[in-house]
């Protein structure tokens, strides 16, 4: 990667050193306090700033500095509506349950979420089901995060030797497993604070720079609306890998505008590359049939397609074909850098006969609903409603979020943290839209895969000539996705070991386990989980990505209503809680099931499965509780009366 | 939502002269207020943006299936013409984002502050007890 400078590597290393220092300090505290509660909960002592930033960093995680800017790059202003419920996210996710779940946890000395549920309903089945669900989804999620972490290391340090990925993976695993298992919850929280502050300051500094260097947002929005349409391809290689120098961007120069580009798989061996287009039809796609050899294998590269368009007299005046970012393969030959272009072959996996990419107009990035490069509408009304529920309501039921709510010190802390996070999210989420939109004019064309790098490119390209302080800023943004991955991974690793040690080992098998033994088991569980995940991440199975997609939603569907009704509704019974958990989990899984066999998820009425699984979970929770009630008197007395 | 509480709870209270936990009572009241703020924000933002920020409002069930957007019938007159975009105050923010997202965002920020400063009760959450009883052996520093 060309952008990595020495400054970047130094900032990156300093960040890792900082993390280790925090782990060391945190470990000092571990020795002075009750081990389990300190290791997994920071002794229920989170103050305002730590609660605010660990909450912000955990709920935002890798998405904010990779996925979200990437979506802004691809779909534009509609992301303001996509993210809009963040205006009430801190209030909802911390305010609705915070005080009460913290109190309920104190009443039973619970230190994990399965702990809270198990005690509230006096049911081991609930505790174990909760733990296993968390472990299952979290492990799947972590395998992908480990892979991402390894790729960032490989990219940042320009590793190009054999086994570069494997070595990067081991480096990542050692760093993150070591500081997490050594420092525990408090180290994780302090790391989140460090990351949160750096990112907040980074965005604030970036705003004036980007506006000054790009001519401002007003100019950018007006320019964008008039932009000529572009179709950007993202196709795999014959081996199935993405990003193999075969993608192109087709810019429409004059009218008529084609509707888009179709790549067709050749039906017979020895087919030549051919182009077909009917300019009279306003809906017409330019149809490009890819060439094949005598054995019937596809042989056309991105360069071949580009040359064919340029040689076509009907098309060379209305289309310009360019290489998207990183797709121009540059080699050093005899000491000279030579541009080889898109040298990769355009592949067709089995059963794929064509790819269709639409021309996206500039105004589609200023208004809804937006489209993907394959023409699928992006933010339909059903999704608008689903996402407003998703961030604010589903968000509060993530176990990694809820565990922070049982970790704060007192009501006042929660109160101040809600206000802090509200200001913080307001400072981050809307300005990032402005930054990416304004910077779009100076960014290269990015494919959907590479658009993850949008924020990094903004930071590096715009500040490269502004002196060392600004280069450090750029470096921080390169390290940011890494920091975000780390802050997600560490919380999740701890979540797994807390489930294994507290909920499964101590509470199910050996309640009288000694403090020393608990320590050994905690450290080793964190380490073993790390090792297993590393092994899985060496060659992640294909279905993994699909599990991750509904993993976070699945956890929310499993936990929201058992917890919410459990703390606010006296009539909730243990059967009702269990039914709500299993029902939510199965509804989510069922609606996502078609994706495991290559289909798409089931959006009933255009609404996200998330919403439906919450409806199922709530209905079951209420109905089953009514049927099996009333709940044991001593539980109601314990949790609802003084 | 069944967040109201039952007669069975009142029976317990009456039977044993118990006092309802103030943290529970205050939290439930606050939760209802927050849910109302969320619902208001959702209704306003989603409605405003869908009516003012979309270039097209497909509503034909034959084309889009039985989706929510088909319930409202054709909204052709609300389809935005890109040529008529305005950017209030010269900030470069499209009008529909400015009124549909930025403005309610500021209102919600203020509402959050009002809630935290004037509505939220700083209840005592109970003793912060030692969560796991110290055991006799192995309280050593190392791990």
Describe this entry's structure for a reader.
The complex is a heterodimer of chains A (642) and B (143). With 642 residues, chain A is mostly helical. Chain A contains 21 helices and nine strands. Chain A has a four-stranded mixed beta sheet, covered by helices on one side. The termini of chain A are far apart. The mean pLDDT of chain A is 85. With 143 residues, chain B is mainly alpha-helical. The longest helix of chain B is centred in the N-terminal third of the chain and has 31 residues. At the A-B interface, helix 2, helix 5, helix 6, helix 10 and helix 12 of A face helix 1, helix 2 and helix 4 of B.
End-to-end Cα distance of chain B: 47 Å
Largest interface: A-B, 101 and 90 residues
CATH architecture of the largest domain in chain A: Up-down Bundle
Residue windows where pLDDT falls under 50 for at least 5 positions of chain B = 130-143
- Report the order of strands and helices of chain B: HHHH
Radius of gyration of chain B: 26 Å
Largest sheet of chain A: 4 strands, mixed
CATH class of the largest domain in chain A: Mainly Alpha
Specify the biggest β-sheet of chain B: none
